[in-house]
Amino acid sequence: MLSLAWASTKYPSTGAFYSVLSKVFGKKTSVTLVILYLVSSIFGIATIAAGIGQYVSYFGFSNILIVEILLLILFCILNIRGVRSSVTAENILTTLKTIPLIILAVLLLQYIQTSNFVPFFPSDHTGFLKAIIIIYWSYTGFE
User: How far apart are CA 85 and CA 80, in angstroms?
Assistant: First the structure.
């Protein structure tokens, strides 16, 4: 993203990625990069749709494939419409994901015991790395 931002400032354009990339890499390479970006975006959207489909299955929907396909179409339409609608959808989904985590944390506050925090810092370096992995896992949304 830093490279793309640098290229965008050096070659300002109102066009899409192709207009910036073609000035930096040439036409053939930029076509390849744009195609790879589109393919990775489609797989990324499909992965998100599959994850949401799995969540929806817990509410009694037996055929989640239809839900996943509809979500895939919805996310593609949002991306085609532009950044503003994509950002709005991302904010809504992040809020819907965060609210249950906050509620769960508040409900579990009564079970916190100070004796569980001793020793605060792990005695060896692997314990610290394990703690970082657990925090990173939760922070990135892989709950």
Answer: 9
Burial 58-94 (b: 16+ CB within 10 A, else e): eeeeeebeebbeebbeebeebbeeeeeeeeeeeeeee
Name the token pair of 54. Answer: 């799995």
Amino acid at 5: A
- Digit-coded pLDDT (tens) for 9-26: 777 766 667 777 777 788
Tokens of 86: 């994509």
3-state DSSP of 28-54: HHHHHHHHHHHHHHHHHHHHHHHHHHH
Handedness of CA 50, 100, 75, 91 (dihedral sign): negative
User: In the predicted model, is pLDDT for residue 143 greater than 50?
Assistant: no
CB neighbour burial string for 3-15, b if at least 16 within 10 angstroms, e if fewer = eeeebeeeeeeee
The per-residue pLDDT for range 79-134, each reduced to its tens digit, is 787 777 878 888 888 888 889 889 988 998 888 877 776 665 666 677 777 766 66
